Amino acid sequence: MSIWRYANPAKFMATTERLVPALSWLAAVALAVGLVWGFFFTPDDYRQGSTVKIIYLHVPAALIAINAWFMMLAASLIWLIRRHHVSALAAKAAAPVGVTMTLIALVTGAVWGQPMWGTWWAWDPRLTSFLILFLFYLGYMALWSAIEDPDTAADLTSVLCLVGSVFAVLSRYAVNFWNQGLHQGASLSLDAEENVADVFYLPLLVAIGGFVLLFIALVLQRTRTEIRARRLHALRLRERMA
Amino acid sequence: MIRLVLRDVRLAVRAGGGFGLGLAFFLIVTVLVPFGVGPEGAVLTRIAPGILWVGALLACLLSLDRMFALDWEDGSLDLLATAPVPLEGVVAAKALAHWLTTGLPLVVAAPLFGLLLNLSGPGYVWLVVSLALGTPALSVIGAFGAALTVGLKRGGLLLSLLVLPLYVPTLIFGAEAVRRGAEGLSVETPLLMLAGITAGTLAVLPFAAAAALRVNLR
């Protein structure tokens, strides 16, 4: 028994068919609990007022936005090394989810920044890096859709993902060097000193859990769609040949 | 490989279009900026480093899609791929040729454009130094982008979408070096970072570009 069993599309489809509904329900429950708890049953912050509550959307979305790229990186490496088609399709499926999360993080940040910082947008390192990440996602998706042959597309986007990862990290540090930050430090870290206060911490964790589950469910579902689309394409080709 | 570089340079110079076009484009950007922001000397002095670097970057971008596309169309890229020279070497040679025909003229001409934008005294040296250090990275990164999009019908627009985000670190450190130089501050850190980026991209990206070319030639 190993994870490579799921490289077989049939096995993948059979397993995820049962997994996706379960994950979706779990995600819905966790999101409902986390967000309702966060929005209605936590006190207002004494300086930020009720605007603090956008943290339950902003932080999880930002977290997923970054980690979706890492997931794509891992999937691309697996495709390049072991040539499992499911892996390449999973990377393709994750990109639109990642770009949406990046957009959510940017928009919720702007909505919060307007009353708090007095501006929708500032050229702060974190904000700028996220905008660059957004551009990376766009380029990746554009390359996928521009190339017709699926294997060529998978290969080229995987190479782009590898190179893009290096440059994304590089840009992060370059941007840090370029401008001083307005954005606060980490909301969550293993170092308890840095964390947000306990009342906000627990619902935030639940909301993050919900976002992670949602991400996994969405990526699996989208991968299933991609596999079906490819099967359909193959069937059509066979029909035309016959 | 040297012959390949010479061939590409000769093609670029004699075929017209590519060579000099980047320079003309750079000039036009430099001329347009004062129309946009006003002719006030102090404002121009402040934004000159950034504008000059962005202009150089866009001028570099302009001729990227020709790097492999012409050889791809007439089939010479297939011959180059089967030649005894490794494909990584071909990529490096082509990037070098691209730099010689676009990057180097930009470096030489940049002080003149700095003059137009009222760049302050010590900035000129650092403009030339930072461009000389940074433009090779632009060419190599561009070669990678061009290799990714070579097989596409209308790759030009996609190429800029792919390549421009990759240019961000180079632009930041390059423009920062000129800005600090123009204000008389120490330029050591951004210049070292810029040199590091150039060295790193020169070492790694030819391999990535060659891998992409192999996929496209399959």
From TrEMBL, chain A:
The chain crosses the membrane at residues 20-42, 54-81, 93-115, 127-147, 159-179, 199-220. It is a multi-pass membrane protein. Keywords: Cell inner membrane, Cell membrane, Cytochrome c-type biogenesis, Membrane, Transmembrane, Transmembrane helix, Transport. Coiled coil: none annotated. It is found in: Cell inner membrane; Membrane. Residues 12-183 form the Cytochrome c assembly protein domain. One of its GO terms (molecular function) is heme transmembrane transporter activity. GO terms for cellular component: plasma membrane. GO terms for biological process: cytochrome complex assembly. Required for the export of heme to the periplasm for the biogenesis of c-type cytochromes. Belongs to the CcmC/CycZ/HelC family. This is Heme exporter protein C. It comes from Tranquillimonas alkanivorans. The gene is ccmC.
From TrEMBL, chain B:
It is found in: Cell inner membrane. It is a multi-pass membrane protein. GO terms for biological process: cytochrome c biosynthetic process; cytochrome complex assembly. InterPro entries: Cyt_c_biogenesis_CcmB (IPR003544), Cyt_c_CcmB_bac (IPR026031). The keyword Ribonucleoprotein does not apply. This is Heme exporter protein B. The keyword Plastid does not apply. GO terms for molecular function: heme transmembrane transporter activity. GO terms for cellular component: plasma membrane. NCBIfam families: ccmB (TIGR01190). It comes from Tranquillimonas alkanivorans. PANTHER family: CYTOCHROME C BIOGENESIS B-RELATED (PTHR30070:SF1), HEME EXPORTER PROTEIN B (PTHR30070).
